[in-house]
From TrEMBL:
One Pfam family this sequence matches: DUF3553
Superkingdom of source: Bacteria
Family matches, as InterPro entries: DUF3553
Protein name (Swiss-Prot/TrEMBL): DUF3553 domain-containing protein
Length: 62
């Protein structure tokens, strides 16, 4: 299986493709295919990088 979020490092911003209501999240860690992201409107969530590909956010507003 492929790690769909391998490019993410702590501090990067991302959106969940199926949960736009969560807002923008900041990556806390990326270890062994588990990505911990603190979403503005949802809190801290652990993402399985082998199932869900997050969308990177580069300007903090998109």
């Amino acid at each position: 299986m492929e790690d769909l979020n391998a490019i993410f490092t702590p501090g990067m911003l991302a959106r969940h493709p199926d949960r736009p209501e969560w807002g923008i999240g900041q990556v806390q860690s990326n270890v062994g295919g588990k990505l911990t992201v603190n979403f503005r409107d949802e809190g801290k969530i652990v993402i399985d990088s082998f199932r869900i590909a997050l969308m990177p956010v580069f300007d903090g507003t998109s």
